[in-house]
Amino acid sequence: MAQASGKSAGKSFFGKFGVHLAVLVFVVIWTVPTLGILVSSLRDKDQIIASGWWNSFASSTQTEAGRLPPPENQVEKDGRFVIEGNIFGDDPPRTISAFGTRAAAPTQYAAGETADLGDGVTLQLNEDGTFVLSSPVALEGSRGQRVYFASSAPPRFTTENYETVLFSEGIGRSFINSLTVTVPATVIPIMIAAFAAYALAWMRFPGRALIIATIIGLLVVPLQMALIPLLQLYNGVGLFFGVPSKTYLGIWLAHTGFGLPFAIYLLRSYMAGLPRELMESARIDGASDFEIFLKIVLPLSFPVLASFAIFQFLWVWNDLLVAMVFLGSGANQLVLTGKLNALLGSRGGDWEILTTSAFVTIIVPLLVFFSLQRYFVRGLLAGSVKGG
Amino acid sequence: MASVGIREVRKSFGSTEILHGVSIDIVDGEFVTLVGPSGCGKSTLLRMIAGLEGVTSGQISIGERVVNNVAPKERDIAMVFQNYALYPHMTVAENMAFSLKLKNAAKAETEARVQRAAEILGLVPLLSRYPRQLSGGQRQRVAMGRAIVRDPQVFLFDEPLSNLDAKLRVAMRAEIKELHQRLKTTTVYVTHDQIEAMTMADKIVVMHDGIVEQIGRPLDLYDRPDNLFVASFIGSPAMNFLHGEIGSDGGPAFHGKGGVSVPLNGAAGAGGGTPVVLGARPEHLKLSDDGFPVEIVVVEPTGSEIQIIGRTPGGEEIVANFRERHAFEPGQTVKLTVEPNLIHLFNGETGKRL
Predict the structure, then answer these.
(1) Distance between the two ends of chain B, CA-based, in angstroms?
(2) What's chain A's average pLDDT?
(3) Which of A117, A155, A219, B102 could make a disulfide contact with A121, Cβ separation 3.0–4.6 Å?
(4) Which residues of A touch B52 (CB under 8 A)?
(5) Domain carrying residue A140
(6) DSSP of B237-256
(7) Does B102 touch chain A (CB under 8 A)?
(8) How far is A279 from chain B (nearest CA, A)?
């Protein structure tokens, strides 16, 4: 007895430990890249190139080239011709660790050292960017001395990337397009499915079992298989009514069609779990089927409606395939996923653009998920635990 | 208020017949309980009166109107369910007002009726609560309140007390009975608990396997059960049964297994040799020197009485109650007899009362 309980306690300890470990692993796998995108999107574009986002809070070191002021600025001092100043001019100050005068050896001298440039000419460059160029004879020429130096800049965070992306790269417009697709493509299937689910759960009519079986069967039909026939059908019908082939209405209908089997299945199994006496009681109280649906079943089904709404919203928001097939690629129709895809081609090297666009894209799913997560979990359990 | 007539009603689910021709007449204002073991069809019959199940054949009428094909809401009935069936997303007041709202009743009138029903049931302080915030007894009262508000012709109760604990059940029993005496609405009450049936009803309908075994006032059923089933079902502890036959020699007497003999004193006219069952209520058994021997197995004093469980020489179990405080011991043999006029005799083959 004692042995058995000891064993089960040990097992549950390892069980718990395993669960916690697994949760931790998933949290890290999910959180770290998200954090990376967020941090990168807020960084200065030069710094993104210089260092990774995990170094973003430390100063970044880079080698720069600069030119001293031209000889006309020289002044004669103690028999020598001298140019003094700050190499950064009006630029933001940085810290210089080393410098050089030849591109082949840009960090030949440490900051503060005096470099001998030949012919008695010397250059001293300090950490704060001040320099002294001194020559025994007057300097000639119209251009200043070339100087290379290694500087380290303090971290710089900015929202400029967001301004750029939203207003000049077209992500803002695509954001609105995505919302235009997603909101109706979530609401329409819920409205249809709620009615269908009630009928399939609580109304007796011939062929009901067959319809339910068909819907379960449709759950496993792959989307890709139906895509092209559906488009052809839509275009055919569209031609008949004189509607262009790629419209928002088309993609709403497509997403509705693809979402309905799961919606009906989920809602039906939840509604079928509501107590029968409630419906009977309402019926005796004088309610018709429509009133029972509207006043009893619908309010009680709110958790499952919410959880389906999350599923459908996230799926439509993240969809690229259906959008590519049913919507055009013009600025007024391109959704976020498509826009991201296009940016990857045209601005592939500009990480500040890509990370910012990516973050704009995931911010809506994040908000939806975190604000409705308890319904999300309940929805996942809806089929398995009676009464949800 | 209205009478309810049930004539030759049958009900089949697929090929299985659940009710085999049931006829019951319920007078206006009567409190009728349908009682029987589970599966006897009593709940199905109630649901048929409510209109939740169709009638396969026969006729159900409420008042003067045949309602076989009338929708539940047109029947002017109210039903209280076993699990109360309160609408979880509505407050007590909204639950009670729901039926009136569906009828588009005037708001002032709805409020007045809800208020009146709440006063009758002591629900006034709970009106703004939700069902999940109520105890079992309170939910039960709300379910009744929902029925009262409608002021229907017939109340239907489907085992309304079986989800309550024993103490609350006794209290609610009295409350429902009092309510009926106050409102005088025709009531049909389904239960499997014969105590509930006995204490509340004006008239009891005992059902078994889809037929009506007996209809009668509670004490009539107790004193003169029509058959073995009713005799065994009504009464707690149950009636004792001895199997045997009526003696043909000498005076009329019952001869059972193991030499058990009970004088009948002309209580029955059946011929000798027919198998019969003798029934005797536990409280009608008395100690007597010329009775039949019973070996005591268990002695159970309850305070108000002493109950013994024993065995006859024929191996049949006997339960007897005594108000006197006899000093019984297990293993002891006592002699018991029963007054001839308190004996119930049943045909051993058909189970009918002789």
Answers:
(1) 39
(2) 85
(3) A117
(4) 280, 283-284
(5) 60-153
(6) SPPEEEEEEE--SSS-EEEE
(7) yes
(8) 9
Euclidean distance between CA atoms B319 and B283, whole angstroms: 9
- The torsion angle over the Cα atoms of residues B91, B92, B94 and B96, rounded to 10 degrees, is 160
Mutation choice for B interface testing from A204, A280, A285 by most B CBs within 10 A = A285
CB-nearest partner of B79 from A281, A286, A300: A281
Are B200 and B173 spatial neighbours (Cβ–Cβ below 8 Å)? yes
Q: Can you tell me the ipTM of this complex? A: 0.83
Q: Considering only the beta carbons, identify the residue of B81, B88, B99 that sits closest to A286.
A: B99
Sheet holding B261-263, edge to edge: B261-263, B253-256, B240-246, B275-280, B344-347
d(CA A214, CA A229): 19
Chains A, B: CB pairs < 8 Å: 52
Reply yes or no on whether the pLDDT at A382 is more than 70: no
Contact state of B85 with A275 under an 8 Å Cβ cutoff: yes
On whether both A99 and A229 belong to a single domain, the answer is no
pLDDT of residue B155: 94
Task: Check residue A388 and give its pLDDT.
Answer: 34
Fold of B4-232: Rossmann fold (3.40.50)
Q: How far is CA B306 from CA A289, B223, B240, B303, in A?
A: 58, 22, 16, 7
Q: Which two tokens stand for residue B252?
A: 């009329």
Count of domains in chain A? 2
Q: Tell me: the pLDDT tens digits for A165-186? A: 888 888 899 999 999 999 999 9
